[in-house]
Specification:
Length: about 400
């Protein structure tokens, strides 16, 4: 560079840093194994042969390394909870040992009971403390959880309705969905039952859902994961999805209105495909001119009904006589409902007549220019005859 400075690629920097940390960790583990094995070999704490003592030291080092690897994966809240549980277990064992020594005396049975209580107390304290530590709010103590990187990507669980709908595949290919798309086994079973149904309509819907899953698996934009979790005590598939969302603290992707409401009541986040589609519909303001194709008559007198390309219903006043025709309307109002958006418009015959007159004039002009440029066969004959006589 001109200023003499150099740029460092962030990816290369992160890779070098990770490689250095891995090398340091590996060297530290080797040192622990060598130190513990050597100490056990030379000091022989159990008065056995030196090789046996060395093997015991190596086994102890392996246990320490395994414990260290598990602790590295645990979150800060789980570590705090486990430490609290272990300290509580040690204090409880100390109090019990004092009571036993004064009541039963200092003998072998008392020592055995104290050691058993110590092991059980540590096990229960560590396991229960680590589990309950997940509920700790460390931010209230001034400790930020943002320093810890997430250990897994976000999981978005798909239900049967959104798989059959198929639009999730289009959304995923655009890159707007990140993380992992989770497909529970009970959703696959329900989808297979629909695909094997005797009803041809249901069978086609089920096969469409299976095709959508294959499309998602072949797509390189998202990762599809089959989830084996099931809840035997819950029969309803929707409630199983809610329980799965609560278990992994993830989002449900659906277009089912009832599942959307139930999940929100249970505190589970929902991504509704229908709400996304409604949000992406074009904005229409009152007074704008639209060109629509009237399909049928409306419920009220002299009304016509048309639909936009995205399925939005357009109710047109004064368009009953214009069924099966394309007309221009003026938008009067837009109504947003839970089912979608509705557009109300008014048909003006005078405005449409002016438009048709302009279109007819333009078409006639184009036809005349085309005929003139191509030439009239009747006018061409005398020219050909004159050429022949010449």
């Amino acid at each position: 560079m001109k200023d003499g400075s150099c740029k460092i690629d962030p990816v290369t920097l992160v890779g070098n840093t990770k490689g250095g940390l891995v090398t340091e960790t590996l060297l530290l583990r080797i040192a622990i194994v060598v130190v513990l094995g050597s100490l056990a070999y030379f000091f022989d704490p159990f008065a056995v042969s030196a090789p046996a003592a060395g093997l015991f030291g190596l086994a102890l080092a392996a246990a320490v390394i395994l414990l260290e690897r598990q602790l590295r994966k645990a979150s800060l809240a789980r570590l705090v909870g486990a430490a609290s549980g272990a300290i509580t277990a040690l204090l409880g064992t100390l109090l019990v040992s004092i009571v036993l020594e004064r009541a039963a005396g200092d003998n072998a049975l008392t020592h055995f009971i104290v050691l058993v209580l110590l092991c059980l107390g540590l096990y229960i304290g560590l396991s229960v403390g680590a589990k309950k530590g997940e509920a700790l709010n460390l931010s209230a103590l001034g400790v930020s959880n943002t320093v810890e990187k997430p250990t897994a990507k976000t999981i978005n669980i798909l239900d049967t309705s959104v798989i059959i709908d198929g639009r999730i595949a289009d959304v995923a290919e655009t890159g707007f969905v990140d993380g992992i798309l989770g497909i529970p086994q009970f959703v696959l079973r329900e989808l297979q039952l629909v695909a094997d149904s005797a009803d041809s309509l249901k069978r086609n819907r089920g096969r469409r859902g299976l095709d959508v899953l294959q499309r998602l698996q072949k797509s390189g934009h998202v990762q599809v994961k089959i989830m084996d979790d099931d809840f035997a005590n819950v029969r309803d598939v929707d409630m199983k999805l809610v329980e799965l969302g609560k278990l992994y603290s993830c989002k449900l992707v659906t277009n089912d209105f009832n599942l959307n409401k139930v999940a929100q009541l249970h505190g589970v986040a929902v991504l509704n495909i229908n709400e996304l589609a409604n949000a992406l519909k074009p904005v229409v303001l009152p007074g704008e001119i639209m060109r629509v194709f009237v399909i049928k008559e409306g419920k009220e007198y002299n009304q016509g009904v048309a639909y936009l390309d995205d399925g939005t219903m357009v109710v047109v006043d004064g368009a009953r006589k214009m069924i099966s025709r394309t007309i221009d309307i003026a938008v009067t109002s837009v109504l947003q409902t839970t089912a979608g958006k509705m557009i109300f418009g008014r048909f003006d015959e005078r405005m449409h007549a002016v438009y048709d007159k302009n279109m007819t004039t333009s078409t006639t002009t184009q036809s005349s220019s085309t005929t003139t440029s191509s030439g009239d066969p009747a006018m061409a004959r005398p020219r050909e005859s004159a050429a022949a006589q010449g």
